[in-house]
From TrEMBL:
Protein name listed in UniProt: HMA domain-containing protein
Keywords: Signal
Annotated source species: Planktosalinus lacus
One matching Pfam family: HMA
Single GO molecular function: metal ion binding
InterPro entries cross-referenced by the UniProt entry: HMA_dom, HMA_dom_sf
Length: 160
């Protein structure tokens, strides 16, 4: 008896192949749904993180773009700080942070530890002594200015 021409075997093979194709299609659809659910969860988590972020702006003494780099690095080194941007002309820093992880005073202390005075914490004197000459600011300098000090705007050198 020839098995290739046997109609019973042919029907059985046809059913097996059809079943495999159906299972493969179901499997692919199932995987696609899992990926979409994961993407949805990730988007929701990012939205929750954005909502939980706090923002603060406070004064920090400094002179130039080298100061800017050091001040921002000090703030950004803290876990929970998302962004930190110091305005050279206004002598103020704007920080976005997760208040569940870090509080504003820790940000002041981190910047002060790098040698810079903030509105609430005096800069570390030993760190101040190691700053480049161009970064040694006047300890009486006004900070957190609404407008740049007269003659100050743009009066800072570029980083090398």
């Amino acid at each position: 008896m020839n098995t290739i021409n046997n109609p019973l075997i042919f029907k059985t093979m046809k059913k097996v192949l059809l079943s495999i194709a159906v299972l493969a299609a179901i499997g692919m659809t199932s995987c696609k749904n899992q990926t979409e659910e994961k993407e949805e969860t990730t988007e929701m988590t990012e939205e929750v993180k954005e909502i939980a972020m706090s923002e603060t702006t406070f004064g920090v003494r400094g002179n130039c773009s080298m100061c800017k780099r050091t001040i921002e690095e000090a703030a950004n080194s803290l876990e929970g700080v998302a962004t930190a941007s110091w305005d050279v002309d206004r002598k103020q820093i704007h920080v976005s942070y997760d208040k569940e992880v870090v509080d504003e005073m820790k940000i002041h202390k981190a910047i002060a530890a790098s040698g810079y005075d903030t509105e609430q914490v005096a800069g570390d004197e030993e760190a101040y002594k190691t700053l480049p000459e161009c970064c040694k600011y006047d300890h009486e300098m006004e900070m957190n200015l609404a407008e740049p000090a007269e003659g100050e705007e743009g009066n800072h050198h570029e980083m090398e």
